[in-house]
Design goal:
The structure holds two protein chains of two kinds. Helix content of chain A is 74%, strand content 0%. Chain A is mainly α. In chain A, helix 5 packs across helix 8 and helix 6 crosses helix 8. Chain A is globular. About 11% of the residues of chain A have low confidence. Chain B has a five-stranded mixed beta sheet with strand order 2-12-9-5-6, with no helix packed on it. Chain B has a three-stranded antiparallel beta sheet with strand order 1-3-8, with no helix packed on it. In chain B, strands 4-7 form a two-stranded antiparallel ribbon. By secondary structure, chain B is of the alpha+beta class. Chain B has three domains: 45 residues, no CATH class; 94 residues, no CATH class; 116 residues, Immunoglobulin-like. Chain B is built from five helices and twelve strands. Classes of the chains: A mainly alpha, B alpha+beta.
Chain lengths: 185, 287
């Protein structure tokens, strides 16, 4: 799609000022990167801190980004992934912190009950995701946050398309079973 | 085994469509496990965590401030580089020599060192403000040439009289070709300065009309903006517009549409913008 090409050339050509181009890039990718990290780190505050680190890194490299080398989504998620790897390396091992600090802004079109229910479900879902294997968790995160197709995920993780498909299907079924158990139990 | 592969493949395909916001029609013959997995995937996509608005705003402000600082440092470094060059005697000498060569060259072109001929003193001198040299008017020949002075020499003496040419190319596209009813339509516009000089454009982004293909009439128009941009040669400026599929009266519309971009104003004159490729998109009718 031409529009994708258009979106890709924006940071490279820095058509307007760098600040404007970066702002647009930020608006497009911040929610996706935050979701990706939130699926891997259950503490919302830590997820926010790591998302900020990702965008600080992206900012320093923004002018040197070249669209012919990688799509911008691949570029930013590679930075996000490396940031997570660094975090886990420093913190020793992957930890799951109880979800008692989620305080996202409520959505304006929902009743308080709906907002509460959605938060609860989101919390349970993230707990379920934290119990998946690292590879399953990685693929689920990339699929549902970055909305990458299997080929893009395969390219980023060095797997085959079909392998990604198998892991993804298996992981969603596992999550469904786990989620239903929590939800109903 | 093949069936399992088939189910996994179908799941991947449907999941991509769900994440893109598409509705998957219910198929009674669908594998039960696949159906359940897709239902759950849909639920997952609905309860994805979102960053809070306050966090987004704070981080954005912090990053933009950092960007400002980075650019200030880069500018300072660049300034220091030129200062350090200027302090070195070798470079000072080289720059002075280069400057002298340029000055001498300009004086030569202006004829300051041309030999004087007795006949020439009686002819009118070439002046951009007072004299017009016609093809029939000849200057007495110098010893080595008999060239007739033609009007082609005029631009060198009257550069301000050349009309400045403006070359702007325009490129547009939408994020999709087909939209579901109510889906937001994103229209990207890229303007490029294809000319050899910098130009300053006003009232950006330009007026963009969305035309119904069947009536060829506009259904919605984005007004011109009030931004002013100076574009150096080959520099590009882009804009993204979003449309909620509502016409001038706030009614939702469906059908085939195309994008039209109105003229831009440069120095008070309209510049015609022409899309090289027609940009069309379809809004599906709700079932």
């Amino acid at each position: 799609m031409f529009f994708n090409i258009l979106m890709n050339i924006i940071p490279e050509k820095v058509a307007r000022s760098t600040a404007e181009a970066f702002t647009e890039f930020y608006s497009n990718y911040l929610p996706k990167v935050f979701r990706y990290i939130s699926y891997r780190i259950t503490d919302t505050h830590l997820a926010e801190d790591l998302t900020a680190i990702v965008f600080e890194k992206a900012l320093t490299k923004f002018k040197s980004y070249r669209s012919e080398k990688a799509a911008i989504s691949t570029w930013i998620f590679r930075i996000a992934r490396n940031t997570l790897i660094d975090h886990f390396r420093v913190s020793g091992r992957q930890k799951t912190i109880p979800l008692d600090r989620i305080d996202n802004d409520p959505k304006t079109d929902e009743t308080p009950e709906e907002t509460f229910l959605e938060k609860e479900e989101s919390k349970i879902l993230r707990q379920c995701i934290s119990r998946l294997s690292p590879k399953e968790r990685e693929i689920i995160s990339l699929k549902f946050s970055a909305e990458m197709n299997n080929r893009q995920i395969a390219g980023l993780l060095g797997l085959s398309d079909s392998n990604v498909g198998v892991i993804l299907y298996r992981a969603v079924r596992k999550l469904r079973d786990d989620f239903t158990e929590w939800h109903d139990g | 085994m093949d069936r399992k592969r088939e189910v996994e493949k179908k799941f991947a395909e449907y999941l991509d469509r769900i994440l893109a916001g598409e509705e998957i029609p219910t198929d009674p013959g669908m594998d039960e496990e696949l159906h359940a997995a897709l239902d759950f995937a849909r639920k997952m996509s609905e309860i994805r965590p979102d960053p809070s608005e306050s966090y987004q705003a704070q981080l954005k402000a912090r990053l933009l401030q950092k960007l400002d600082e980075q650019e200030a440092i880069a500018r300072e470094k660049q300034g220091r580089f030129w200062k350090s060059i200027w302090r070195q005697p070798v470079w000072q000498g080289a720059i002075m020599v280069a400057f002298a060569v340029v000055v001498v060259g300009l004086l030569c072109r202006a004829g300051a060192f041309a030999p004087e001929f007795p006949e020439a003193t009686t002819t009118p001198t070439i002046s951009p403000t007072t004299t017009t040299i016609t093809p029939t008017q000849t200057i007495p020949p110098p010893p080595t040439t008999t060239t007739t002075v033609a009007p082609t020499t005029a631009p060198t003496t009257t550069p301000t009289q050349i009309p400045q040419e403006v070359f702007i190319s325009v490129y547009a596209d939408t994020d999709k070709l087909v939209y579901q009813p109510g889906e937001e339509v994103m229209i990207g516009i890229v303007l490029t300065n294809d000319g050899p000089t910098s130009i300053t454009l006003e009232n950006l982004p330009p007026i963009v009309s969305l035309m119904a293909a069947d009536t060829q009439q506009p259904v919605f128009t984005f007004s011109a903006g009030n931004e002013i941009r100076t574009l150096t040669p080959n520099q590009t400026v882009h804009f993204i517009l979003t449309w909620n599929q509502e016409d001038f009266d706030g009614e939702s519309v469906t059908g085939l549409f195309y994008v039209e971009i109105e003229d831009l104003i440069y120095n008070g004159q309209p510049i015609l913008l022409h899309l090289d490729q027609p940009v069309q998109f379809d809004i599906l009718t709700e079932l």
